[in-house]
Design goal:
The protein is mainly alpha-helical and 67 residues long. The chain has one domain. Helix content is 96%, strand content 0%. The chain is built from 1 helix and no strands. It has one helix at 2-65. It is rod-shaped and about 95 Å long. 0% of the residues are buried. The model has no long low-confidence stretch (mean pLDDT 90).
């Protein structure tokens, strides 16, 4: 009986190690997706904060300057 319990514990240990590796891969994948999302959404929004005022000033000076 004692050997049987030890064998089951060893099997569980192997399975837990496999689960841990799988979870770490998944965590790294989600972390990568998070940073890519930040780069593809937030950085363009920050760029727009600087580009829109410049565009508006150029556009308004060009259209209103001709009047």
């Amino acid at each position: 009986m004692n050997d049987e319990i030890k064998q089951k514990l060893e099997q569980q240990d192997v399975k837990l190690d496999a689960i841990y590796k799988s979870v770490e891969k998944t965590r790294k994948y989600f972390q990568m997706i998070f940073w890519v999302t930040i780069a593809m959404v937030v950085l363009p929004l920050i760029a727009l904060l600087f580009m829109v005022p410049s565009f508006l000033s150029t556009y308004s000076s060009g259209t209103l300057g001709g009047l």
